[in-house]
Specification:
Helices cover 34% and strands 23% of the residues. It has 5 helices and 7 strands; from the N terminus they run H-E-H-H-E-E-E-E-H-E-E-H. Strand 3 and strand 4 form a beta hairpin. Helix 2 packs antiparallel against helix 3.
């Protein structure tokens, strides 16, 4: 049996990591998987019904149901692998209101200056270093969510105020300076933290 080229040169799976999430995230993952299972059962019924209608060569309902089942299967596989490859640690955002601010940690509001090495352009941002999947911004304060596992957050976690570091980000090399570290307010958290949602996963290639 010949080996498939696409299997030989496939990129290895990412190493397992610890992902910090808000309480209830594991329940959302389980509910998403159950919803996909229910959807698949309904699609299988549609496929069986379409199959009973005759000539499969021109049976577009059968083909559509078959394709939909494959799409659901891919999502279920991706979600299953996401759960299997990672450990999820729940953290309560209420603890972020009084954290020590000596170094950048999950839950801090940081003011970050970024200078692109190539263009020398400087940008200043204010971020809440937050849990997995958060992307909201607060129009009142200008704070944006920065998920802790993002390349930018990974580069600054553990740094002190005034610390400077040179990093390679997806957009290129940059020098980062942490200008300030503080705790968020309860009002800021209320505006920034959104309802917990299942992850948007990239399906593995077949």
């Amino acid at each position: 049996m010949p080996l498939a080229r696409k299997r030989i040169f496939r990129l290895p799976a990412p190493a397992p990591t610890t992902i910090y999430v808000r309480p209830g995230y594991n329940r959302v993952l389980a509910e998403e998987f159950e919803a996909l299972k229910v959807k698949r059962v309904a699609l299988v019924k549609d496929k069986v019904e379409a199959h009973s209608q005759g000539d499969l060569r021109e049976n577009f309902g059968f083909k559509a149901a078959k394709d939909a089942i494959r799409a659901v299967d891919r999502k279920m596989t991706a979600l299953d692998r996401f759960v299997a490859r990672n450990a999820f640690t729940e953290v309560d955002p209420a603890t972020w209101l009084t954290k020590p601010t000596a170094t950048v940690q999950l839950g801090h509001v940081i003011t970050l200056e970024k200078q692109d090495v190539g263009t020398k352009r400087k940008h200043r941002f204010t971020f809440l270093v937050t849990t997995h999947g958060e992307t909201a911004s607060d129009p009142d304060s200008g704070i944006e969510c920065l998920p802790h596992q993002s390349p930018l957050a990974t580069a600054v976690l553990g740094l002190t105020a005034g610390a400077e570091t040179k990093v390679t980000l997806p957009a290129g090399e940059a020098v980062l300076i942490v200008r300030a570290i503080r705790n968020p307010t309860a009002a800021e958290l209320g505006r920034l933290l959104t309802a917990i949602k299942p992850p948007e996963l990239e399906e593995d290639a077949e």
